[in-house]
């Protein structure tokens, strides 16, 4: 029982390898543009990707599934934060600028931890989660 995992070359955070987790246990790492075949320990397993504090959605997979790693919704929230809030913070002066930058960096890390930075999708015409 195996699945195929493909990491898109257009995923953000692409320098380090992503850790692949099956049933809450690390099994391998996957590099940018790489495709890996992973052996499943059970008929239905849960796969998830983690990198530093970022994570993906947990996806239930079974034998023969082909899963693609792409950018998740958390990434878009982080980009929105950077585009809107950081320029405003830089325009401020003195302690207000420092406080605004600390708030924006804190928000960035909260988004990184609480949202899915990466998205796992089944691409073999089976149902997606």
Q: Which geometry do the CA atoms define?
A: elongated
Task: Provide the CATH topology.
Answer: Immunoglobulin-like
How many whole angstroms does the radius of gyration measure? 17 Å
Largest beta-sheet details: 5 strands, antiparallel
> How many structurally independent domains?
1
> What is the mean pLDDT?
83
Measured distance between first and last alpha carbons: 20 Å
CATH classification class: Mainly Beta
The helix/strand order is EEEEEEEEHHE
Low-confidence stretches: none
Helix content: 25-40%
Report the CATH architecture.
Answer: Sandwich
Tally of strands? 9
Protein model, in words:
It is a single chain. The protein is α+β, with helices and mostly antiparallel strands and 129 residues long. The chain has one domain (2-122): Sandwich (Immunoglobulin-like). Helix content is 30%, strand content 35%. The chain has helices at 73-91, 95-114; strands at residues 2-7, 18-22, 25-30, 35-39, 45-51, 54-55, 59-61, 66-71, 118-122. Strands 2, 3, 5, 6 and 7 form a five-stranded antiparallel beta sheet that branches. A four-stranded mixed beta sheet has the order 4-1-8-9. Helix 1 packs antiparallel against helix 2 (95-114). The longest helix has 20 residues, at 95-114. The radius of gyration is 17 Å and the shape is elongated. The two termini are 20 Å apart. The mean pLDDT is 83.
In short:
This protein has 129 residues and is an alpha+beta fold. Helix content is 30%, strand content 35%.
Q: Mind sketching the topology for me?
A:
Layout: E1 2-7, E2 18-22, E3 25-30, E4 35-39, E5 45-51, E6 54-55, E7 59-61, E8 66-71, H1 73-91, H2 95-114, E9 118-122
Parallel strand pairs: 1-8
Antiparallel strand pairs: 1-4, 2-3, 2-5, 5-6, 5-7, 8-9
Helix pairs in contact: 1-2
Transmembrane segments: 74-90, 96-113
Keywords: Membrane, Transmembrane, Transmembrane helix
């Amino acid at each position: 029982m195996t699945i195929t995992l493909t990491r898109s070359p257009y995923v953000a955070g692409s320098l380090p390898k992503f850790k692949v987790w099956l049933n809450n246990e690390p099994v391998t790492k996957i590099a940018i543009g790489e495709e890996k075949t992973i052996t499943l320990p059970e008929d239905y397993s849960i796969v998830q990707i983690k990198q530093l504090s970022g994570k993906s959605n947990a996806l239930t997979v079974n034998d023969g599934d082909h899963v693609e790693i792409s950018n998740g919704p958390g990434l878009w929230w982080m980009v929105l934060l950077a585009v809107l809030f950081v320029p405003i913070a830089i325009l401020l002066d003195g302690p207000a600028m420092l406080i605004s930058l600390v708030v924006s960096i804190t928000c960035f890390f909260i988004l990184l931890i609480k949202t899915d930075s990466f998205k796992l999708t089944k691409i073999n015409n089976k149902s997606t989660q």
